[in-house]
Amino acid sequence: MDTKKIKIALIDDHKLFREGVKRILSFENSFEVVAEAGDGSEVNELVEKHRPDVILMDINMPGVNGIEATKQLLEKYPETKVIILSIHDDENYVTHALQTGAQGYLLKEIDTDSLLEAIKVVYDGGSYLHPKVTHNLVQEYRKLVEDRENKSGLERIEYRKPLHLLTRRECQVLQLLSEGQSNRKIAETLVISEKTVKNHVSNILQKMKVNDRTQAVVKAIKNGWVEVH
Question: How far apart are the C-alpha atoms of 75 and 215, rounded to whole Å?
């Protein structure tokens, strides 16, 4: 029995970049690139015609940029999942993109395995941020927490492992997630398989009652469960 393929649309004004991504995705049997365009103004028409499951959307394009295109698209087709592609790791770009409804934000320097993983995670209803982006958001969030504590005269939150909730290994994985490490990097750091890391991440999300790794990291920081360097 044939497995349903994830239909993908590529929106990027650089044809060479689109061709490179299409080539990468062609090696994954569960993916099918059904459409592509070089301008954000073409997105709604493209979605109406091809009904992609996931759209990889460049943030900087002539005419209608990726942020505005995503906003317009999701107003009409809210079920469509969008992953923003960008060269910008500034938290302002990321926050703006997520506020429009994008489910993912990737830097164009991302490795192949992480790109494939991001598409699958977003297709399944989760969120996915590039590790470097996650780290920057965590740092910004931590700074806000510290500023709030200083203004209120409260003592700094003491770091403590959530051993009441997670195993020691899961605590280690959570710490590395908060440092913006990808599954592959976590596997290398802990000398375990990438599959084992994915299992740990899945268990962490379930135990912490969150939907994705970004929510897990934010909750961990809020409760003082990880050290932010």
Answer: 24
In the prediction, which pLDDT does 227 show? Answer: 77
Share of the chain above pLDDT 70, in %: 87
- Whole-angstrom distance, CA of residue 106 vs CA of residue 38: 18
DSSP string, 88-125: ---HHHHHHHHHTT-SEEEETT--HHHHHHHHHHHHTT
Q: How many residues can be counted in the chain?
A: 229
- Can you list the positions of beta strands (E) in 115-228? 128-129
Question: Across residues 118-145, what is the average pLDDT?
Answer: 77
Tell the residue number behind the tokens 């909730």, with chain if given: 165
162 vs 126: CA distance, rounded Å: 23
Task: Name the DSSP letter for residue 5.
Answer: P
Q: Report which of residues 109 and 223 the model is more confident about.
A: 109
